[in-house]
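We now fix the convention by which a protein and its fold are recorded. The integers have meaning only within a learned vocabulary of local backbone shapes. A complete example follows; check for yourself that the lines match position by position.
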Amino acid sequence: MEVGGAEVEEGVTRVLVVDDSPVDRRVAQLLLSSSNSCAGSFHVIAVDSAKKAMEFLGLKDGKEQAIDMVLTDYSMPEVTGYDLLKAIKALNTLRPIPVVVMSSENEPQRISRCLNAGAEDFIVKPLQSKDVQRIVRSCSAARHKGSAPREAVAKSVPITPPPPSDHRAPVGAATASGPRGHLTGLAMVLHSSRMELSQYFPLLFKLVLLVYAVLCLGELMHRWSSGSGRSLSL
């Protein structure tokens, strides 16, 4: 099957990640792409705005793309993640697209609003490895529910406050990501960059050796020419 111009194997979950933050987009891509889930692997397509997501999904021209799930940020300029959620849920299709909303601000009113609009889950950013299993469960549950009323799906998810010691709580929890969470996401991106650069180290090492050899040869030539000049003067 072809998604966004690329061939995708059967059994692969196709996730559209929508976030205006390049760091959060990269973190989501890394976690989903490297996940070894029992539900199979993920094919991730990332865009930086809800408007681009709507264009990709075909919400404007009616040509729908084959996407298994949308993972979207809540707060984005122009068109918000909540607007994207409502547009997706307004589609009258036999195979509804599950939507998981992310946000760095964990507000109970915002969570309730998204769940009542049909979101399968609400995750507090930064995204972590254990959240991938929640995404998998949300996608599986949505497939099993099929065309069940979205209001019933939203009401079936309880909104309860978490215990004080729990940093990452279930749906509806009240936690704060804070700067530490963003530093964690940035660290993941930097770690990925180091992994990508590591493959160039052997080439750089050979280049350094070549430059050193050229410098040594130049020094020898300089000494030889200087010695020849002194011999001639004598």
Remarks:
- Strands lie at 2-3, 6-7, 13-18, 42-47, 69-73, 99-103, 121-124.
- The two ends are 84 Å apart (CA to CA).
- DSSP finds eight helices and seven strands in the chain.
- Residues 1-6, 147-177 have pLDDT under 50 and may be disordered.
